[in-house]
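Hmm, how's this folded?
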Amino acid sequence: MTRIRPAIGIPLALVLALSAAPVLSGCSSVGGLVNGAVQQASDGKVSLGGALPKGWPEEVPVIDGEILLGAGNSADGQTGWVVTIKSAAADPVADATAQLEAAGFVADASGSSGGNGAAALKNDNYTVLVAGNADGVIYTVTPLSAK
């Protein structure tokens, strides 16, 4: 087991949110109406299922699966994104990590504990934190500071 450096530590809330995320997929008809209203109200920055949030960087691939939640937010002139994906893959975190590495991202840290895993990767433009378990993953994407 590799420990994740404290500067990149995975908050317990992130892993707990992933564990609870599959519950969100149960209300499809009501969920569709709510998702449409949320997307319209947030100008596409928040999706409660089915779509990546507005502005998601094309250079950040995501694994196949059902998008349960997507959100983007701007602060200090930079935008960051969070996406939760329910996946049928045997090891979604490993699949997500391999896909990011194939897209040119370099692993910065990784670790696992009790069926949960996490990896931090970066390229010239973004840092991507992937955390999850056998049910799926949460991607947290932040732009690197201006050089």
About this structure: Residues 6-143 form one domain. The longest strand covers residues 66-75. The CA atoms of residues 28 and 128 lie 29 Å apart. Helices lie at 12-20, 28-41, 92-102.
